[in-house]
Amino acid sequence: MYCIIVQTRLKPGQRNAFLAAMLPNAAASVREEPGCHVFDVIEDRDSPDLFHLYELYADEAALAAHKQTPHYLACREVVNPLIAEQTVIRADVLATRPRAATP
């Protein structure tokens, strides 16, 4: 699996507008895209206006397909002007929800 972790710092006072666009996008991504397995929207407790998106895709092609969907394009149109700074970590998933070894 392929993972991206997007760290987004918003301009001050943009939380509600960001969430109004991002939460429906996250839900639609998991619901409508077979290649999108997880799309978590995480609000940082220690830094106001800082959010993290944790997204798991079947592969890089699934992420590319995600970026062509109507819900993604509509979301980006709204959130792009709200963003002060954004970084992306791209990673390969080696284990997800591993179970503890039984003795």
UniProtKB/TrEMBL annotation:
What the entry lists under Pfam families is as follows:
ABM (PF03992)
The UniProt keyword set, sorted, is: Monooxygenase, Oxidoreductase
Oxidoreductase as a keyword of this entry, yes or no, is yes
- Molecular function as annotated in GO: monooxygenase activity
Q: Locate the ABM domain: which residues? A: 2-93
- Keyword Acetylation among record annotations: no
Extract the coiled-coil ranges from the record: none
Q: Which named protein is this? A: Antibiotic biosynthesis monooxygenase
The opening ranks of the lineage are: Bacteria, Pseudomonadati, Pseudomonadota, Gammaproteobacteria, Oceanospirillales
